[in-house]
Design goal:
This protein is mainly α. The chain contains 9 helices and no strands.
Length: about 230
């Protein structure tokens, strides 16, 4: 067994128990299961990358940990702390997307799918922000900026996949989709009465978002090594 496999297995075991405990509404035990997720995927990344981590990736993991702690603590400032933490995460991921990838060049055949993507993202952004939750009214500008950043990140991911169709672009898109659904269902959990289904979708998509994020980091590093080797 490879050295990175135990931590990856632990990650998926934690995901499995999160699903089971959320479904059975064992909230306290579900917190313990979710608390294992980030350390497990972090160790998987560290071992897989030969214990090397870039500054940006390190800061991203740090704020993922901070945001997760705020979420698990569920105290008065948890909402604000979580939003700010994951906003920083999205900004840093967007920075990686822009710096480490070539500029997007659209062909005529790409115009229709890209237009559909733009309309879909704008529709989601406007629909979610228009819910006008009491909590959202307190941080209206922050939520709006948060939504815009996530929308730009999603646009860049989907359009990169449409125009290039690489494995790296697929991981970018899967990560963006996971974070979109995680955040939307977080809002739904605030807006609607308690639902096991909403909680399950929120937690599973958030956890899968971490997995696709790490796989994106590893694939990006692998491509960069190949480029250096070929040169």
């Amino acid at each position: 067994m490879k050295a990175n496999k135990p931590s990856l297995i632990l990650f998926f075991v934690a995901l499995f128990f999160t699903i089971i405990l959320d479904y059975t509404q064992q909230d306290i035990l579900a917190i313990y299961a979710k608390a294992v997720v980030l350390p497990a995927i972090f160790f998987y990344f560290i071992i897989s990358s030969d214990f090397k981590i870039g500054k940006t990736e390190g800061v991203i993991f740090f704020f993922c940990f901070v945001g997760q702690v705020f979420d698990l603590m569920d105290i008065e400032i948890s909402e604000l702390g979580g939003v700010i933490s994951f906003l920083i995460v999205y900004l840093l991921i967007l920075k990686l997307f822009i710096i480490d990838h070539e500029s997007i060049k659209l062909k005529r055949k790409d115009i229709l799918p890209v237009s559909i993507v733009v309309i879909f993202i704008v529709y989601l952004l406007v629909s979610v922000l228009s819910l006008q939750l009491d909590n959202m009214k307190r941080f209206n500008m922050l939520y709006t900026f948060y939504g815009i950043v996530l929308s730009i990140l999603s646009y860049y991911s989907f359009v990169t996949y449409i125009t290039k169709g690489t494995h790296l672009a697929l991981l970018m898109s899967l990560m963006a989709v996971s974070y979109i659904f995680s955040d939307i269902f977080y809002i739904f959990n605030q807006y609607f009465s308690y639902s096991v289904v909403l909680v399950l979708i929120r937690d599973v998509t958030q956890i899968l978002g971490y997995y696709f994020m790490v796989e994106y980091f590893l694939e990006k590093t692998k491509i960069q090594k190949k480029m250096l080797y070929n040169n």
